[in-house]
Amino acid sequence: MASFTLHGIPVSRGIAIGRAHLLAPAALEVKHYLIDEQQVEAEVARLQDAIATVHRELQAIWSGLPKDSPAELGAFIDVHVLILSDPMISETPLNIIRSRHYNAEWALVTQIDELSAQFDEIGDTYLRERKADIQQVGERVLKILTGTATTLPHLAGDSASANLIVVAHDISPADMLQFRDRAFSGFVTDLGGQNSHTAIVARSLDIPAAVGMFNASALIAQDDWVIIDGDAGIVIVDPAATVLDQYRERQARQQRDRKKLGKLKKTPAITRDGTAVTLLANIEFPDDCAAALDAGANGVGLFRSEFLFMNRSGAVNRLPSEDEQFESYRKAVVAMKGRPVTIRTLDIGADKPFDVAEQTALNPALGLRAIRYCLAEPQMFLSQLRAILRASAFGPIKLLIPMLSHAFEIDQTLTMLAQAKAQLTAARKNFDPAIKVGAMIEIPAAALTLPLFIKRLDFLSIGTNDLIQYTLAIDRVDHEVAHLYCPLHPAILYLLSTTIALGAKAGVPVSVCGEMAGDTKLTRLLLGMGLREFSMHPAQLLAVKQEILGCDLGQIAPYTRKILRMVEPAAINEAVEHLRLM
Ligand code: PEP
Ligand code: MG
Fold first, then answer.
1. What does the alpha-carbon distance between residue 516 and residue 124 come to, in Å, rounded to a whole number?
2. What pTM value is reported for the model?
3. CB of 205 closer than 8 Å to CB of 15
4. What is the CA(466)–ligand 2 centre distance, in A?
5. What are the tens digits of pLDDT across the range 73-131?
6. Catalytic status, residue 513
7. Phi, psi dihedrals of residue 198, rounded to the nearest 5°
8. Is 55 annotated as catalytic?
9. Closest C-alpha among 116, 80, 82, 95 to residue 47
10. Structural domains in the chain, sorted by start
11. Would you say the CB of residue 463 lies under 6 angstroms from ligand 1?
């Protein structure tokens, strides 16, 4: 096949080279991981056991059928038994486990998808409809397998997996979480925007990814060779040998550069002319603290607590209990060994629903999201506040509230915090009574009415991802408007710089925790505006530090002020480029 190139949106840097692994929507619902050689036969046995259980189930259903039930019912079960006994279900997935080292669920879904695709091509309608039977049988086996999910064998590290590239129409942030075990080396999706939460999770995994590729999942075939250039947002399919060589060389160079950056871990982030900058980490789970510490972070600037609430539709309690949350928050603060941990209260909604199927709002990004949802569900919110407060007895925690725009929302939140404190005091539970409370500045109205916030709160954190979405009125998830997502729009620069300046004037610390903070192309601009606290994925931290170490604020600040007076996009872009060379 001839090589071709697809253009999309770069979301996570670096180069990935590997074979395409197409994921159908159904496949996204199961766990994907690779198993060690020694565990292959145990995994094969697990799948065989599940198939045997379904056999017994079907037999039980058959013999339990009332005598007068229609003959088709028995025939229907017979078809399922036949399918289950056919080597295409009873053997091929076992071979997939043996040859590719996929876990049982993944191997089974891979085969079901393959069979479904073959059935789609059959002209005969009767036969084509048998596809549904195959899927139903597959689902039965999957149910048994996932019912035993807690006893799954442990994950194999980065072995043979290191060169599988996921290609899918779309991946939700919740589905993306499944890939945290690093079974894949890159992601390509048809949908998505630069700062969709799916893209953010890909970045936090530090794996090259490109989204908004329109019909990549239709154009790329299973096992095609694929190069993702995560910096340029391009995907090269079936590259020529010379192109492959060039990219391998670039990949090796990038790996060497990264290694060099590793030497900066213990170096304090101080500009050439002596200004210290705080570099914090964005995390989704307490376990991410290890990566934060490893990158030399001064603390956690954004713990996106909503990830603890996702992927739980099968759980007995849909929401994590107060104790379960407390354990997670405590784990994070203990792991950070005295460094501050900023926990953001639940920011559910928009592209991070509890459950995609339940999303009903016409414009969820403008709907009952984040603090709006929390204030509408006071018991749930109080339980999260109590869990965070209890964890504050184990180390420095700051509380960050997302999506505030009205004074009364701040007041209600503070009232509820006081209530949570009173409940804990009554229950004789320890907490930090002076816990600092801050607001995300991510709605333009908030950035334009800062005195309301400064008066009531201890610190501010600018969420540029949403601030850009709401200021420019573009959905951060929608690839069709992704070209309008522009951090350097003069309106954004105005809101950012005024927030930083007003915070400084009032003595209220301001950080940026949106994706702009981790973009090295913007580090100097933000420093020039006066920003002294950056929060980003641990993977971006050392590159940002390198930028800081090389810059002279005495030169940069006056030039930044000039940029802030510009309105022409071309002039702004050129000036920001120039700033990087100063
Ligand atoms: C933001 O909006 O910039 C932010 C940091 O929060 P999130 O990306 O989770 O909405
Ligand atoms: Mg946000």
1. 54
2. 0.78
3. no
4. 5
5. 677 778 888 999 999 999 999 999 999 999 999 999 989 888 888 887 777 766 766 77
6. yes
7. -65, -45
8. no
9. 95
10. 4-24+159-259 (3.50.30.10), 28-146 (1.10.274.10), 263-580 (3.20.20.60)
11. yes
